[in-house]
Amino acid sequence: MSSLSYAAPTSVDEAVKLLAGASGLAKVLSGGTDLLVQLRSGRVKPDLIVDTKKIPGLIGIREDNGSYIIGAATPGAEVEAHAGLKAAWPGLVEALDLIGSTQVQGRCSLAGNLCNASPAADSVPALYAAAATVVVVGPNGRREVPVEQIPVGPGRTSLAKDEFILEFRLPPRPARSSDAYLRFIPRTEMDIAVVGCGVSVTLDGNGVCTAARVALGAVAPTVILVQAAADALIGHTLDADTLAKLDAAAQDAAKPISDKRGTIEYRTKVAGVLARRTAGIAFDRAQGLKNGKAH
Amino acid sequence: MAKTYVSATINGEQTEFLCETQQTLLDVLRDVVGLTGSKEGCASGDCGACSVILNDRLVCSCLVLGVEANDAKITTIEGIAQGDKLHPVQQKFLEHAALQCGFCTPGLIVASKALLDENPNPTETEARYWLAGNLCRCTGYDKIIRAVMDAAAEMRGETVG
Q1: How far is B82 from B87, CA to CA, in rounded Å?
Q2: A23 interfacial to chain B (CB closer than 8 Å)
Q3: Domain residue spans of chain A
Q4: Given an 8 Å threshold on Cβ–Cβ distance, is B44 in contact with A37?
């Protein structure tokens, strides 16, 4: 059990070479809050761990012409402390902040949450709703892809063995835009979503929605983007009729399993309720109304 | 497989050690460096008994590899007091009897110190959420929260009746 190697490359090229040249299983390490648990339990048995945190750009947040760029391994605590990002994308910041404890926030990252590929990952519905993209690096250079192309099933991603995520990019925000994320858990903290919902909207001066994206977590093998739910919002204010259509679209898209966290029927119903509540917060924020955190 | 050489500053002292990749920082602190104040409760990042401050961030040392600590600055429970003088959080844990078996105490004291370093005037709700990752099966938490709030007041120079 002492054949496990470790490398902390200081450039993308070096990291890609290490991953490509690995004879057995190589795992990319960001914050390690999932990977170390899997190592300990024996669920994954890598031959090589490539720690990405020493690569320039992997940790940090910068703004570029209204876009925010977040290094793949930036810890949750650093994201939460970034006032500009929080003002532009409060829902995404809250979603990442919901993961684990203060201690976990000192380490956990967007890349880890996305690539661990849990359908219940908290930051992922918010990333889908935000229309975030990731810059993937590998032997053929870099490519920018929508976040929703990364997870392909529970614990599985579309990344090749010698690829990893360099950074997340959030598009510029038009006026009267905001987002929100809610998850349902039976306690107040330190739990895994029964259902999660991310909503991002842009409104016109009359409160009519001109653009929307809605994503649901923990109701399918991966987080899902629900186009029908976005369509229920676009062209409308958030009145009772719109809310009813949004609720129905979310319930219709939800294809959950029954497990210890909830039954199919329960999760489906909660998906509709959460979509309504999350949209309410996103609309309020886009109109400049105060709306507090989920907890 | 050869062990990896790691050099880190632990509680202000330059420290060098050799470790295997799969050894966690907690394993290294306890078994290699001999600092056994940090405890292993769950070994999966849920209980907080192994809390340390790594490069100014509170983390579970069971979720960090020892090899990742190269060039890092680490504060463990052994580095919280200044010589013989207890940190106010430690003193208030004693005064409020904020412990029974004591197993969670090192982690709670490190986490509470990290809270007060970042937020000298937390509300009780903020303190409770900050410490949600530190499990205690004895006290019911109320005495711990009273100790932390009292330590915060003392560190701000306020006298509490």
Answers
A1: 7
A2: no
A3: 5-51, 61-170, 179-286
A4: yes
- Confidence (pTM): 0.95
Domain A179-286: give its CATH architecture. Answer: 2-Layer Sandwich (3.30)
Residue A236 · residue A242 · CB < 8 Å: yes
**pLDDT confidence of residue A1:** 46
> What's the complex ipTM?
0.96
A100 lies within 8 A of chain B by CB: yes
Q: Extract the runs of DSSP E, i.e. beta strands, from chain A.
A: 5-7, 26-29, 48-51, 61-64, 67-71, 133-138, 141-146, 151-153, 156-157, 164-170, 177-184, 195-203, 209-217, 224-225
Which residue among A31, A75, A101 sits closest to B133, beta carbon to beta carbon?
A: A101
A8 lies within 8 A of chain B by CB: yes
- Stretches in chain B below the pLDDT threshold 50: none
Of residues A68 and A186, the one with the higher pLDDT is A68
* pLDDT band with cut points at 50, 70 and 90 for residue A291: low
Report, as an integer, the average pLDDT of A221-245.
98
Q: Please tell me the distance from the alpha carbon of residue B135 to that of residue B41, in angstroms, as a whole number.
A: 9
CATH topology of domain B88-155: DNA polymerase; domain 1 (1.10.150)
Instruction: Specify the CATH number of the domain A61-170.
Output: 3.30.465.10
Domain ranges of chain B: 4-79, 88-155
What local confidence, expressed as pLDDT, does residue A295 receive?
37
Do A6 and B21 lie within an 8 Å CB cutoff? Answer: yes
Cβ A61 vs Cβ B88: under 8 Å: no
Q: Collect all residues of chain B within an 8 Å Cβ-Cβ radius of residue A77.
A: 57
Task: Tell me the per-residue pLDDT of A125-160, one tens digit each, with 9 for 90 and over.
Answer: 999 999 999 999 999 999 999 999 999 999 999 999
Interface test with B, best of A101, A105, A191, A192 (most B CBs within 10 A): A101
CATH number of A5-51: 3.30.43
- Residue of A37, A102, A105, A192 to mutate, interface with B, max B Cβ within 10 Å: A102
8 Å CB contact of A75 and B4: no
**CATH code 1.10.10.10 for B4-79:** no
Torsion of CA A2, A75, B46, A161, to 10 degrees: -40
